[in-house]
Fold this protein.
Amino acid sequence: MIAYLIRRILYAIPILIGVNLLTFALFFVVNTPDDMARMQLGIKRVTPDAIEKWKQQRGYDKPLLLNSAGSGTDKITDTIFWQKSASMFMLDFGYSDDGRSIGREIATRMGPSLAIALPTFLVGLVVYVSFALLMTLFRATALDMAGLALCVLLMSVSGLFYIIGGQFLVSKLWHLVPISGYSGGVDGFRFVVLPIIIGVIGGVGSGSRWYRTIFLEEIGKDYVRTARAKGLSELAMLFRHVLKNAMIPILTGVVVVIPLLFMGSLLTESFFGIPGLGSYTIDAINAQDFSVVRAMVFLGSLLYIVGLILTDISYTMVDPRVRLQ
Amino acid sequence: MSFMPVMLWSDVLVFLLLAAGIASAWYVRQREHLLLPWRRVAESATAMVSLLVVSLFLLVGLLDTLHYRVALPEKNGGVTVFSPEVLSVFDKLVTTLRTQTEKTYSAPLAVTLYAKESITDAQGRVLRDYPRLRYGGAHLTAAQQQDSDVLWRGLTGVLGGLLVGGLFVGVVGWAKRSLPKRGNGGHSCPPYTWRAVIIATLIIAALIGMTVNLAAAYHVLGTDKVGQDVLYLSLKSIRTGLIIGTVTTLVTLPLALLLGIAAGYLRGWVDDVIQYIYTVLSSIPSVLLIAAAVLMMQVTIDTHPQWFETSASRADLRLVFLCLILGVTSWTGLCRLLRGETLKLRELEYIQAAQSFGVSTLRILTRHIVPNVMHIVLISLVMDFSGLVLAEAVLSYVGVGVDPSMISFGTMINAARLEMGRDPMVWWALASAFGFMLVLVLSANLFADAVRDAFDPRLNCTEVVA
């Protein structure tokens, strides 16, 4: 198991290098730092001096890959690639355009993001699985069909509608919770409850339908027929056999997203004014702060790969037949 | 010539897709075994009704794709100068909607503006009242007539729509009965499907009739901040949504098909390289990758203003790039599916037989593998469509979607969102954007489900139609 994990982590390194090279190519080769400077300074009032100054302030006034002027290791390390891109492997994300450390910003903003994303994820999981089990229990009846129709309807509504509609109904019309804002501690509960509920409702359609498909696939298998033949009640069969056996496909979809919860949700956080990583990303996109976007891309793929490894580990926990070698 | 046809990049791609669609439809028509699953789709009432709705949207989108520029009145001797404004055939059809703009907000079917203004009346006194609209209900002498006029116009519109719809259904029904049946025939839709389609046609015809009749004199869905008709904006948004949903497949399809099958069939280092590429791409959260790519595209477009003749062509190129980027970020899922299926297929006897007969690799791939994975391609394409339409709205909100000057559901929602705080609320622009999007996505989803049910071999192994 340990050997397997070490191998998986070693496999992850080339992928991260790939991500790193891709973002480097996207941000520095497709458009040179000069283009970015011109863009940031405004197309019209650009002088070569201003561009040089802009580049110097941000450390972009170096060769891209190879510094022929340097000596020894400086040839490689005194370049944009080394200082801006490769340094992310050490989790050194550099500074944003307003001069703050991106690393520290990420560390402080993870908390609020998690405060929304983690409860949404957990409550959502329970709600979707129970709804799917209910539909499976009443499969091929009018109730199942109505549930399925509801799922398709909910899936077809834009995610923006849930947020805007929810904010309008709950905050503006009923005055139950503040429209937006955030505060830490117990006091923050009134701020996070609406985003969580909306997040759960927004995923009911696709989530429940997905789990229903998994359960229906399991229920057609032979062991279920055996269980039924020995006189097990439908409920006992569903919970004791089907749910357990459906764990592998469920985990495949679920565990991967757990590390990504740290990243927060772009839409929810920006609509509800939550100072998490999602709103950080949106602000960076709107301000065209490329270093922040680059850092988030790298962090996102890092967390995704962690999720993949966690998925493998979780298999061994629910299914004793799976051994990682 | 008083106008000049304009081919925007997205138009070219749409026509390419249309040609491919027609060609494959013709190809399928010739082959009974390929037609079989489509017959199953045609038997489903929900599928046919949603297909009807989707094709109406497609019609609007296609009409909106035929672009041209009008010639300006000649000034400098003989040289025709064309207006920088790019219009479409659809714009021409709804000229009244497009040109009759009010000053600012007005509610659906209103005859007055939404906010009070100081107006000078006939006696020269200054009053504070709701001013009458320039076009909405302009034929009425007094605002009090509005209710009865709306009712009358609505009713006559419904009746007119029903009449035309009924005539259409009658002609189609007569043509179907009197024309000789093609091929092995006898395999037409069950009667309840026909009934559902007829009822849906009549309802839609009545709705269209009512809207058309009302739109001649009112702003049916109100006007937005700069007085543009919301109905016009919603109808124009359809093309943007459809392009995002369909042109993207032009990128995903070749990439996924080529790389997925190559990886699955050739194995070895080819497989390793392709797997590496799609793992890298799929490990980046897609919104972030799209955001990064769109930001970079924006820099390129902004630093090269000389590339674009009109602002429409700039917005259009941005749309095409957005499709490209969405395609590059979304081919990995389909590629993985195709690789898995090809891995399974290549171990089957008929492939091994072909190999031992010495059939070339290329021929095995095109003759034996591709036709047998096409159902996966088709299912995943129709399933992805609705997701892409929804994604457009979200991306435009985030600021990495279509050009702000391009009319789309996302930009409509974005503009209307800020008006939520007003009291009384301006709700109609949001409601129409969400409403149109819901109808389009819902019917696309229902149709996609029917297609999946008909094509998925796992769901359909019991039903064999001789």
